[in-house]
């Protein structure tokens, strides 16, 4: 079966008999989209990129370029298969999570402010080493993050819903939070994870602990987190927030002990080659009469 493919890559290699459409040849806001059967929304295109799928009457596969796919569920029509980009963003997201954690522990934000003021502000901060670390999630990003952490002198515990592959179950998390120095959130947003770190669970974290969120903002209750930060009890490194984008007057911007990056975990130069490679692999599988990988839902 052949497919009409729309993606952002002008040099995408498609199997013989497939048709490749791009923003240059087929602008989404002014073209007939009815023949598109395999759609890859523009990376970082947000809701608008997904909205175009509503005009694709022949759509069979919606291949989102993100690992997270919760926002795409609403666009699934009967007969449409949704695939995510599991594996594409592992390296970029894991390295950002590491960067946020080390920056927070070693006081990089304070040093940057001191530099702007010309202050030689020598302060002792906690080491990243000798930390008890909890990784909440056990997918490919979590596994990559674990491998990045292993050369450090840290104790790593992974938590997942199933407790598979050597991880603890999330039901055990509360018992261990009081002894955990750094918590990394790398799990999907769903009904079970939404608000997982509410006021009660944040209160279980030890004084001076750090929470790093590179998953989805809704996993943490924002108001409860702000209260803990401004009480000088917890620290946070956030690549995602709730709401998002964070309004300029939101109190989280000015909360103590908080470093915020604007949801750039997967958005590095590493995306282009990895994203295109995944899509080309998916199309080869379809050309061979096989199902694509990374299927996460069916309309």
Write a brief caption for the model.
The chain has helices at 46-51, 90-105, 108-116, 140-149, 173-176, 199-204, 222-230, 270-287, and strands at 4-6, 19-21, 38-39, 61-63, 81-83, 132-136, 155-160, 168-169, 182-185, 210-213, 235-238, 258-260, 295-298. It is of the alpha/beta class and 299 residues long.
User: What helical percentage do the residues reach?
Assistant: 25-40%
Distance between the termini: 20 Å
Question: What class would the helix/strand composition place it in?
Answer: alpha/beta
Strand order of the largest sheet: 8-7-6-9-10-11-12
Number of helices: 8
Walk me through the structure.
This protein is α/β, with parallel strands linked by helices and about 300 residues long. It folds into 2 domains: about 5-90 and about 270-299, Rossmann fold, CATH 3.40.50; about 90-260, Rossmann fold (3-Layer(aba) Sandwich). The protein is about 25% helix and about 15% strand. It is built from 8 helices and 13 strands. The strands form 2 sheets. Strands 8-7-6-9-10-11-12 form a 7-stranded parallel β-sheet, with helices on one face. β10, α7 (about 220-230) and β11 form a beta-alpha-beta unit. α2 packs across α4 (about 140-150). The longest helix is centred in the C-terminal third of the chain and has 18 residues, at about 270-285. The model has no long low-confidence stretch (mean pLDDT about 95).
């Amino acid at each position: 079966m052949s497919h009409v493919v729309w993606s952002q890559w002008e040099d995408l290699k498609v199997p013989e008999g497939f048709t490749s459409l791009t923003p240059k040849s087929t602008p989404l806001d002014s073209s007939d989209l009815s023949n598109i059967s395999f759609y890859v929304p523009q990376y970082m295109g947000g809701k608008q990129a997904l909205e175009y799928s509503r005009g694709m009457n022949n759509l069979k596969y919606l291949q989102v370029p993100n690992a997270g796919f919760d926002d795409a569920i609403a666009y699934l029509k009967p007969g449409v298969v949704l695939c995510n980009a599991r594996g594409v963003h592992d390296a970029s997201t894991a390295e950002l999570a590491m960067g946020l954690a080390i920056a927070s522990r070693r006081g990089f934000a304070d040093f940057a402010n001191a530099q702007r003021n010309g202050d030689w502000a020598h302060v002792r901060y906690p080491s990243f080493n000798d930390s008890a670390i909890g990784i909440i999630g056990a997918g490919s990003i979590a596994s990559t993050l674990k491998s990045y952490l292993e050369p450090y002198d840290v104790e790593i515990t992974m938590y997942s819903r199933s407790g598979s592959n050597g991880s603890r179950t999330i039901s055990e998390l509360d018992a261990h939070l009081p002894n955990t120095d750094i918590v990394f959130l790398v799990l999907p947003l769903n009904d079970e994870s939404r608000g997982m770190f509410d006021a009660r669970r944040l209160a279980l974290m030890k004084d001076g602990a750090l929470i790093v969120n590179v998953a989805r903002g809704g996993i943490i209750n924002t108001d409860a987190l702000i209260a803990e930060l401004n009480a000088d009890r917890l620290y946070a490194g956030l690549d995602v927030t709730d709401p998002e984008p964070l309004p300029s007057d939101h109190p989280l911007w000015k909360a103590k002990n908080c470093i915020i990056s604007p949801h750039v975990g997967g958005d590095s130069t590493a995306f282009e080659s990895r994203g295109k490679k995944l899509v080309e692999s998916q199309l080869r599988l379809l050309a061979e009469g096989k199902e694509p990988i990374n299927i996460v839902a069916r309309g």
